[in-house]
Amino acid sequence: MSARADKLMTMSQAPDSAVRTYIEQHRAAFLDDLAEWLRIPSVSAQPDHAADVRRSADWLAAKLRETGFPTVEVWATPGAPAVFAEWPADDPGAPTVLVYGHHDVQPAAGEDGWDSDPFEPVVRGNRLHARGAADDKGQVFFHTLGVRAHLATTGRTAPAVHLKMLVEGEEESGSIHFRSLVEEHADRLAADAVIVSDTGMWAEDTPTVCTGMRGLAECEIQFHGPDQDIHSGSFGGAVPNPATAVARLVAALHDDHARVAIPGFYEGVSDLTDRERALFAELPFDEEQWLRSAKSYATHGEAGHTTLERVWTRPAAEVNGIGGGYQGPGSKTIVPASAMVKLSFRLVAGQDPDHIEKIVRDWTTTHVPAGIRYEITFAAATRPCLTPLDHPALQSVVRAMSRAFGKPVRYTREGGSGPAADLQDVLGAPVLFLGISVPSDGWHAPNEKVEIDLLLKGVETTAYLWGDLAENWRHEA
Asked: What three-state secondary structure class fits 89?
């Protein structure tokens, strides 16, 4: 290692007390700035707010320049704009890290049940209430104060890592242009690791790091029988019924052990290691409370796995909608002309959405009776992502978060799906999740909030993270 690189490494960390003092000194200005951003109603799903989404991107771009990023650009898409920023490290051997988040928000209106104007931030106790406070403006914005704390307390003039940010403007409306944006700018976005700050922790007193998300494949299957609804007395029992055929298709989706019965579905799926099972078991999981949050009365799923394992680490197939024939009051004795079912498949690491589409199409074909015509349509798929527990960048996130919170950090996964997998797929970089939001923050709900103390823990975590990555995950030129 060169003497210059060794000197830079010694500058990469600072005493925890210095970092915390810096954050406290800048707390009020940080919250004032965040409140200003939250006042912009950047609702990407509503065309009337298109100008506001653009204004949000411009606001963030200006703030990133003020933070010190030498390169900041607003990238246009056919929809809403994204913001890109880049700040090279002084050391060419430092790793490159791309931070992902989004600046658009869900729709919100007072009549939805808000106690105050959703776009006029209000502090109640130690909570900041506003649309986007947690999802995702607060969690994007803590990176600005975090990198400033990192620089101020180490005496550096540039981050210890090559730092990039990509903050999209369409996440809350499906990220429909995101993958093409990443593909178009893949060279500019190239990174050794991706940090996603659009996620959360297990609980306020249980800091956690998510190590993966499930992917998603969706389809709609239409069965067509007679050319029109026909009399069930004159024709029932003598021609195929598309509603019955759809019901049989759905009945064949799972076996008696709640495993997906589509041949080839589990191809590429690996079992959990003993260590992974043990780490999940350390979480303070209350199944009865979980059921209440699920508004359900019993757990159900693939035999041989716990509830958390089913949601986080196992693939699943669900019926999202099913229908056909007469749905009104009373009776209408017909053989319906058509019936349909909507299916979704949550995928885990090792599964290929293209393979899933093929086997679902083949499986459907085998369950179509004579006299039934069918159509099957797939939506764009999202790939799963998973980072190994021993990955050095993940361990840096865990150490930095543990320093900030002063307690051990545990591991989770996410059962849902998101655009982060596109970054892993296109850039070939591991995806790491760094978020401080908790379940009570009410994402997408009235009175969304963020815990201010946790928001500042996010700031502190990033102040430690860049130096830890530079010290423990180097790429010598």
From this structure: coil
